[in-house]
Design goal:
By secondary structure, the protein is an all-alpha fold. It contains four helices and no strands.
Length: about 120
């Protein structure tokens, strides 16, 4: 393997330039600023030149990650939460399972069937 191929592997994952300015963008959105105005303010106040779609895409992606509980954002709490609740059977179900409707069909009694052989 060449030396340049070795340098390209691994390293730090991609991070957006806007990550450190998420709160700034969020405050501007709370003030009902348009994405074009936000892009202009990022250039004038923060010195970051971006297209007008860049803050929009970044902001929406960050909101989805926060709502989903992205693995880099949420702390790893697997040890503090049990895999299954210990008293799951004693808790009532949130919605009970519906009972199957009783069929209207009644099986005929063979002893009461007339087998004279008259078929019409």
């Amino acid at each position: 393997m060449t030396e340049t191929a070795q340098r390209k592997r691994g390293g730090r994952a991609f991070h957006s330039v806007l990550e450190s300015h998420f709160d700034f963008i969020h405050q501007l959105r709370q003030r009902r600023k348009t994405w074009k105005e936000i892009a202009e303010l990022l250039l004038t106040e923060k010195g970051i030149r971006v297209t007008l779609y860049a803050p929009y895409r970044f902001y929406r992606r960050q909101l989805r990650r926060h709502a989903k509980g992205h693995r880099e954002i949420v702390e790893n709490n697997f040890q503090s939460q049990p895999a299954r609740p210990s008293v799951a059977g004693s808790q009532p179900q949130s919605r009970p399972a519906p009972f199957a409707p009783k069929p209207d069909f009644k099986r005929p009694d063979r002893a009461k069937i007339n087998n004279d052989g008259d078929f019409t």
